[in-house]
Design the sequence.
């Protein structure tokens, strides 16, 4: 039944087949762990234990919610298709979605102090690792990399903007930097 369910047209486009395989694999994994050999063995208690086991094994709330969603859709499909009398997990309050935002690590901007530390560490590490004969050349490269980190920190340039940067973008008199529209992807921006 999991194979038949996953083959129905849930999505269209180039990633539809990949999505079908992923859903089928998740369902087969869940059924194997819950020891569901026939649809009659799909129970609310088994689903609760399975979902709790995911969290106990260190999986994130988002993974648990994805499994819950796939299992619910499968059970609804099986009921609509006449394969089971009623869905054991349809709209059950015991199986609510968990707040997955707690699991997300929040990205934070690099502080000015941390950017300086990174730049200094680049130069120091290069000085330690560079061969004696070419140390000056290596140090010059490290200083350039440190300058890139500093410019990125001061201006907020994105990677592609930093890689495409030209001296003509910098106006030292007004202390501004103008990124052309073709590099930014939208209208040009000034920092």
Sequence:
């Amino acid at each position: 039944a999991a194979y038949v369910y996953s083959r129905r047209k849930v999505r269209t486009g180039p990633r539809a087949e990949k999505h079908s395989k992923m859903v089928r694999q998740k369902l087969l994994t869940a059924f194997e762990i819950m020891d569901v050999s026939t649809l009659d063995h799909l129970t609310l208690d088994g689903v609760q234990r399975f979902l709790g086991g995911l969290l106990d094994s260190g999986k994130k709330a988002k993974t648990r919610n994805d499994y819950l969603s796939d299992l619910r859709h499968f059970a609804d499909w099986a009921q609509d298709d006449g394969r089971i009398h009623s869905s054991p997990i349809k709209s059950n309050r015991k199986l609510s979605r968990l707040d997955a935002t707690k699991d997300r690590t929040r990205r934070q901007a690099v502080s000015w102090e941390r950017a300086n530390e990174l730049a200094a560490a680049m130069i120091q590490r290069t000085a330690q690792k560079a061969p004696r004969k070419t140390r000056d050349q290596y140090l010059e490269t490290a200083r350039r990399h440190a300058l890139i980190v500093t410019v990125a920190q001061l201006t907020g340039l994105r990677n592609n903007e930093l890689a495409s940067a030209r001296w003509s973008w910098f106006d030292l008199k007004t202390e501004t930097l103008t990124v052309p529209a073709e590099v930014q992807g939208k209208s040009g921006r000034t920092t």
Observations:
- Residues 60 and 103 are 7 Å apart (CA to CA).
- The chain has a mean pLDDT of 80.
- The chain is about 55% helix and 5% strand.
